Structure formats: C-alpha cells, structure tokens
Amino acid sequence: MNYTADIAIVGGGASGLVAAITAKRLNPNLSVYIFEALDRVGKKLITTGNGRCNITNLKLDLNRFHGQDVAFCQHALSRFGYEEIKNFFYSIGVDFIAEGDKVFPSSLQASSVVDALRFECERIGVNTVLNCKIEDIAFGKEYVLHSCNDTVYAKKLILATGLLSGGDKIGSFGNIFRFLKSSGFKTVKVSPSIVQLKTETDFVRQLKGIKVDAKATLFCGNKAVCEYTDEVLFCDYGLSGPAILQISRQSGRDDKEYFVSLDLYPETNIEELILKIKDRAKLLSIRTLEDFFVGSLNKRLGQVVLKYCGYKLSDSVMALNDDDLAKIANTLKNFKFKVLSNTGFLNSQVSAGGIATLEFSNTTLMSKRYKGLFVVGELLDIDGDCGGFNLSWAFASGMLAAESVVKQL
Ligand SMILES: Cc1cc2nc3c(=O)[nH]c(=O)nc-3n(C[C@H](O)[C@H](O)[C@H](O)COP(=O)(O)OP(=O)(O)OC[C@H]3O[C@@H](n4cnc5c(N)ncnc54)[C@H](O)[C@@H]3O)c2cc1C
Q1: Which of 22, 41, 44, 345 best tests ligand 1's pocket when mutated (most atoms within 8 Å of CB)?
Q2: Which DSSP letter does residue 264 get?
Q3: How far is the CA of 404 from the centre of ligand 1 (A)?
C-alpha cells in the first residue's frame, strides 16, 4: 500500500501515541499516521509497572534522568511536566493515583491506559497502520519510508520506535536506531538499565528467594557511584529487586570493575551496630553461630553473613571476641558482591544511550540536519530512573515534538 501523510509517526508506543493525539488535536485538518510494526499499539505499555503502569512521578526532577547531555530534556519536562501529563490523561479518561511519589492510573491497569489512548486516536481520526515495520527512510524535502509491503510519503516524520529493552515481542527491535547510525547520525553507546545484576554467586546463590530491605550502593573500585534503599532480592545468578534495578545503570556503561554493597541495617550506624551485636553476643552466648541471628535477621541470611565472614556455624557465640563482633557488624553494613554483568536487554526496563541529543534542538526536538525530522522517547540518548520517569520522558518528548511539528505545517 502507498500512504501519504502530513505527519508520519513511526512507532505506536508511549511517545508515538501521545505525539499523534497531540498533533491531531492541535490541527484536526492534518493527516496524522502511526505506523506500528506489531499487530497492536502499546504492547510495551501494557507490560509496564508489572501490569499497573507507573505512568509518571510527582517529582520529575532533572537528577532522575540520564544521558550525555541530560540538560537537553529540561525544556520538554518543564513545558510538559507532571501537570500537563496529568491533564492530558485526564482528558482521555485516565485518572491518576499516587503511591508515594510514584503515580499510576487509578484503575491500576496498564491495559486501560493503552485502551484510552487507542480510543482517543480513533475518536479524533489518527490513522493507525499495524503490522508495518519501517525498514528504511529516504531523507529529503519529504520523507519516504518503506516497510516490506508499504511505502509512505510524509511531509514531517516523528521517529518513536524506542530501543532494545524487553525484546522483539514488545517491539524493541532497534532497527531504526541501527538505520540512523548507519545513515551517519551520532550515537551514544546503548546498554541495559533498570536491570538485574549478575554477581559472584558463592553466597547469593545460598540466599536464593530471600528478600530484604537494604541500602544498596554501587561501587566502582572504592568510589560509591549511587545508592538506593528498598527491597533486594537474592537470586541464583546475583541480585534483583527495586533497590538493585535502581542502581544498575552505570555498571553496564563501561568495562570498569563494579561492586554492590548491601547495608542490611541502614537505620543503624556502625558504632550502634557494634554495640548491638556485642549485647546480643552477651545475651545469647550459649547459642551456636547457626542460631545467632535468629529473631533479628532472616535466619539463612544471618548464617550466610557469618560464613562470608569465615566462621563455622557449629562454633559457639561465646568463642567470638570483640574483633570478631566488630567484623560481623561491619559485614552487615557492607555485604559486598562483585558485579559480573547484567541480565541483558531482554530483562531490562530501559536502554541507556541512543541517538545523540546534540543532533537535535532541545526546544523542538527537530533534527539539525533534516528539517521536519523529529526523534522522541527512548530512542534519544535520555533515560530515567525506575519510578515513572521513562514514561514521563516518552510523553513529554512526544508532546513537544507534536507541538513543534504542527507549528511548522
Ligand atoms: C517490562 C517493562 C516495564 C516498564 N515499566 C515502566 C514503568 O512502570 N514506568 C515507566 O516510566 N517506564 C517503564 N518502562 C519503560 C517504558 O516502557 C519505556 O521507556 C517507554 O515505553 C519508551 O517509550 P517509547 O515511545 O520511546 O518506546 P516504546 O514504548 O517502546 O514504543 C516503541 C514502538 O515502536 C514500535 N516499533 C519499533 N520499531 C519499529 C519500526 N521499525 N517500525 C514500526 N514500528 C516500530 C514498537 O513496536 C513499539 O510499539 C518499562 C519497560 C519495560 C520493558
């Protein structure tokens, strides 16, 4: 089939759907098309927030976003911040509910967000072409796009194809990223973020399935890179859970040596913890080490910490001297694992890196080389922390590009 569009949007995900609705609302006379590779729009959106869709965050601070030039996203996020995102979704029937700073649709159903976006596209006359995977683009006065069956002639083009996280089934093909790179666009290394970490497994494997609240700190050598306090899940391959996902980003960016340190008593400082452990040793001196932490820590976790310190579980608590007790307290504050790698793009929630932002205007998101070409969402070298930041960037950038493109037409 041949299609002729005023605005062609490649990718019917978070940013593409919002861009299409925004553009069509601003000028209903324009022909706005979404070309989506999969058989439905919003397949990734449906999986977000464990099916609940952490749609945005009350505090969209710049320090929750990342990229080589993170200030690039400031304009989009101040022009289309929390209030504008909330109003947009309210206008299509999606109410918000907050859990702490994280915001969800009050239905707690990601599918309802996709439905509402789809209904609005239908209502206002956004054309959606499914099963149309764009493979190449001819840049010129107008844009000519090809899928294996279709040709699209477009006055303006918004690329909203995302990157590599989550795999092909939810549309993370990465082919448009590769196409732009081979066409000479500058890129920034792409790596998985918000992802589980593979670590040395001697001790974590023994703790498989245990969840604890801890402060997780990512170290590069002796330097703390970032930290986050939340749940940590021990797995046979390494570490997972919200605290680990939140600190995972940097470990995939270079070949340096990274460690995760877990503070199992984040509310207690080391001096207090030493006193607490000494007191416990006095009280429970007749126990063996196997049961030393029973009633204070998860039993298996307590045992593995003691083994990590080099003690035998059959030894008596009474045999521990002050140095031993200080060593145990220090390990509880710094239970450390070498990071080997991460569980890859397929298991990650977002891809760090992308098309370099220096190729685009931060106030319009238009390419500096090709007038009328816009890139939005994850495909650009901007990513956010876990907590609704990535969808917020997708929505804000989609709205900004739509507003800019309509002004041009
Ligand atoms: C499991 C999981 C959970 C997540 N949970 C959250 C969360 O709760 N909160 C949050 O803020 N973020 C979350 N994210 C991240 C968030 O979903 C993404 O950052 C966001 O969807 C990116 O939006 P986008 O529009 O750039 O790309 P996408 O939403 O990925 O959309 C891209 C679309 O383009 C289509 N496409 C790709 N290539 C082509 C092509 N060549 N031709 C035509 N179409 C194409 C794809 O099929 C897809 O529909 C999660 C991600 C995952 C994987």
Answers
A1: 44
A2: S
A3: 22
